[in-house]
Recover the amino acids of this structure.
């Protein structure tokens, strides 16, 4: 979780805010805008269930054109955990409502781990090391700062259709990235030599921190493959009156997936070279296996250690 607050803390300008811009990048106010706060209940497992906290429609503060922020105070008895703020706005009068989501956390200062970003006891459902891996993966995917990294400018004549095009949400949610990281780790452990002792992200960060990059390359392959699946369903090619519109992105994500898999394959080769141990044949000490020190045992053998020869 990139933004966290403590109970009784005042939330103001610069904390939970959004900025709206028009098609040419100039600040512009929305026709209507409101927000709601939700607690993410993970007691039933991830991704969790949203529980509305307070009013369903709150009015944000609008200090300047195109800038809005939530002004509130975290209750002293607020439950520590993950929260979401859902912004609902309309671009122009009569336009359909749109929503964007921001995530934040509330932690108990007496139990939260420093720098955990909401992880640890009383905070996020993820451990500190899991959250660290998720944050590092977001940086590699350029999904760590949507406002800065994502750019989309439609043609000028479509400005009234998509007047507000600033992106506020992440492409992947935390629990999705965790799934990709864990699947990547399982995948990596399938390659020789056998490393069953490094089967969780927590163990990985402690025992084999040099493997983190390899696991992230595998996670990128899973993440881009998931997006390619989405775009296969959303792609279309339309033409009428000499004007054509084509949206096709699955092949681009497939290309990114193949590049990530290539890096992952190189990492599996390095694993074979750097982990120089194998598990030998397990032989019983007494009673069987005494007729050959190296091959398979034959016969019943001698059951007494005294007669072992």
């Amino acid at each position: 979780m990139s933004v966290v607050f403590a109970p009784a803390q005042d939330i103001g300008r610069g904390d939970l805010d959004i900025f709206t811009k028009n098609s040419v990048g100039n600040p512009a106010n929305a026709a209507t805008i409101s927000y709601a706060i939700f607690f993410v209940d993970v007691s039933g497992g991830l991704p969790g269930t949203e529980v509305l906290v307070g009013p369903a429609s709150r009015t944000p503060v609008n200090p300047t054109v195109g800038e809005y922020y939530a002004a509130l105070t975290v209750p002293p008895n607020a439950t520590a955990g993950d929260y979401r703020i859902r912004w609902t706005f309309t671009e122009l009068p009569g336009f359909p409502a749109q929503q964007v989501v921001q995530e934040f956390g509330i932690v108990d200062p007496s139990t939260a781990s420093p720098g955990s970003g909401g992880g640890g006891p009383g905070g996020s459902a993820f451990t500190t090391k899991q959250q660290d891996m998720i944050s590092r993966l977001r940086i590699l995917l350029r999904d760590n700062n949507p406002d800065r990294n994502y750019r989309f400018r439609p043609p000028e004549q479509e400005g009234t259709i998509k007047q507000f095009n600033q992106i506020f949400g992440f492409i992947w949610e935390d629990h999705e990235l965790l799934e990709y990281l864990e699947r990547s780790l399982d995948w990596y452990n399938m390659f020789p030599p056998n490393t069953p002792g490094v089967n969780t992200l927590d163990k990985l960060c402690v025992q084999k921190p040099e493997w983190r990059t390899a696991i992230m390359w595998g996670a990128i392959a899973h993440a881009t493959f998931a997006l390619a699946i989405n775009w296969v369903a959303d792609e279309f090619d339309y033409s009428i009156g000499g004007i054509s519109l084509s949206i096709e992105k699955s092949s681009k994500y497939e290309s990114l997936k193949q590049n990530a898999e290539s890096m992952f394959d190189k990492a599996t080769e390095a694993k074979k070279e750097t982990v120089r141990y194998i598990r030998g044949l397990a032989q019983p000490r007494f009673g069987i296996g005494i007729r050959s020190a190296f091959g398979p045992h034959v016969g019943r053998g001698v059951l007494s250690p005294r007669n072992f020869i």
Observations:
- The longest helix spans residues 250-274.
- The chain has two domains: 1-125, 127-147+169-276.
